[in-house]
Write a structure and sequence with these properties.
mainly alpha; Fumarase C, Chain B, domain 1; Ribonucleotide Reductase Protein R1, domain 1; two-stranded antiparallel ribbon; 19 helices; 4 strands; 4% strand; elongated; binds arginine
């Protein structure tokens, strides 16, 4: 049975049907579709548009369909165009004529707008949990590594010493923002489009506020044409997911570098590594590489939907059916990446000694040496020049600033005293950085306390 056969004199061409149909992918939200229908008939009965008996029969029928799809007894019939037509057809088949009243005061346009919103809202809640797990994992690593020293980089060149906790704190901030962004979107999108009809509302006395409250929305949407053609919340979601993938990808890139033979800062657990079919010695960071690689498809979904939406006149147009496949793919991709990445991180081994040794060479304490001079009255620009000369001397001698004898220091500037060595010790360099946001222990402990609060709320 077709929902719209009445005014047609011919069967739909099979290729047209296949091209037009969305059941193969919109079946993904059968639960949301059925939940929306149950709310709709509940409201219709409250308004006296259906009797209570009709409502009960329809709801029982819908619940049976949902159970049978979930258990696999009921298979999707590809002869149906989409999930909405499929559920309605099965309902009519099962409960007879009363099933034909389900679609009273509703169009597939507001129905699909509702289903996709419900689906996205549920997925945002899943994503929120996954982001929480990731934040918790980062927090645990931070807590244990407040004094694990490592080089901080700019331009991928050693810059100044930091701690592993401080480095990971940067990612904590990123994923916290990702979580907040999704929360903002959820709040903004949480209005119910059902009752907008095809585009211009309906003449039935629908109680849209009631339907909205049944479905956990903050209220009904305010303009029926916007309701059926707004896909902003999907674009916002894809944008937030793209940013989240960009963060994951950067983190992956660092882990790939840190896991390389040259760095050896970390060892990815065997359970999260893969081998080579030819080179027996290889242990590859495939998971990190794949997460980095999959970032592209999430960006692709955003670009694709932005492009789809840009030329569409009000109100609903079939182009909008294209919002689904790539959004589903993007959401599933991000969920998979978050779960795997968190697992990889939680099992990763940090080679503290290697990190610390790396921070000790590469002149990461050169700024602190200059600051020493400044603290003894030398203008910073002069201090910069003096330390530059000393670094050059150390490079020639192949030693670090810590190893340069005091008389060499004093040849270039008599300001240096024995306490220069204490001033440029790596621990001193880190621990004296206690301004808000800096890697010093005290500053980090304060930040950690606030992270704990975020995680508890
Ligand atoms: N499968 C359609 C979609 O995803 C459902 C809405 C169909 N509405 C219509 N007027 N053809 O957009």
């Amino acid at each position: 049975m077709k929902l719209w056969g009445g005014r047609f004199t011919k069967e739909t061409n099979q290729l047209v049907h296949n091209f037009n149909a969305s059941l193969s992918f919109d079946q993904k939200f059968y639960k949301q579709d059925i939940g929306g229908s149950i709310a709709h008939v509940t409201m219709l009965a409250k308004q006296g548009i259906l009797t209570d008996e009709e409502k009960d029969t329809i709801i029982a029928g819908l619940q049976g369909i949902e159970a049978d799809i979930t258990s696999g007894i009921l298979e999707f019939d590809e002869a149906q165009e989409d999930i909405h037509s499929f559920v309605e057809a099965v309902l009519i088949d099962r409960i007879g004529n009363v099933g034909k009243k389900l679609h009273t005061g509703r169009s597939r346009n507001d129905q699909v707008a509702l289903d996709m919103r419900l689906y996205t809202r549920d997925e945002i809640d899943e994503l929120d949990k996954l982001l929480f797990d990731l934040l918790q994992t980062i927090y645990n690593i931070m807590k244990e590594n407040l004094t694990t020293y490592m080089p901080g980089f700019t331009h991928l060149q050693k810059a100044q010493p930091v701690t592993l906790a401080h480095h990971f704190g940067a990612y904590f901030e990123m994923f916290l923002r990702d979580r907040d962004r999704l929360k903002d979107i959820r709040k903004r999108m949480n209005y119910c489009p059902l009752g907008a009809g095809a585009l211009a509302g309906t003449t039935y006395p629908l109680d849209r506020a009631y339907t909205a409250s049944l479905l956990g929305f903050d209220g009904p949407t305010r303009n029926s044409m916007d309701s059926v053609s707004d896909r902003d919340y999907l674009l916002e979601t894809l944008s937030a997911l793209s940013i989240c993938m960009m963060h994951l990808s950067r983190f992956c890139e660092e882990i790939i570098i840190w896991n390389s033979n040259e760095y050896r800062f970390v060892d990815i657990d065997d359970g999260y590594s893969t081998g080579s079919s030819i080179m027996p010695q290889k242990k590859n960071p495939d998971i990190a590489e794949l997460v980095r690689g999959k970032t592209g498809r999430v960006y692709g979904a955003l670009t694709s939907l932005l492009t789809t939406m840009k030329g569409i006149p009000l109100a609903y147009n079939k182009d909008m059916q294209e919002d689904k496949e790539m959004t589903f793919d993007a959401i599933d991709t991000v969920k998979g990446c978050l779960a795997l990445f968190t697992g990889m991180l939680a099992t990763m081994k940090f080679n503290h000694d290697v990190m610390e040794a790396s921070a000790k060479n590469g002149f990461t304490n050169a700024t602190d040496a200059a600051d020493y001079l400044v603290n003894h009255g030398v203008p910073f620009r002069d201090a910069h020049g003096i330390i530059g000369q000393l670094v050059l001397l150390c490079i020639e001698k192949d030693i670090s600033l810590d190893e340069l004898p005091l008389d060499e220091y004093r040849k270039i500037s008599p300001v240096f005293e024995e306490d220069i060595y204490e001033a440029i010790r790596m621990q001193t360099c880190v621990e004296r950085r206690n301004t808000i946001g800096a890697p010093g222990l005290q500053a980090m402990q304060e930040v950690l306390a606030s992270y704990k609060k975020f995680l508890e709320n």
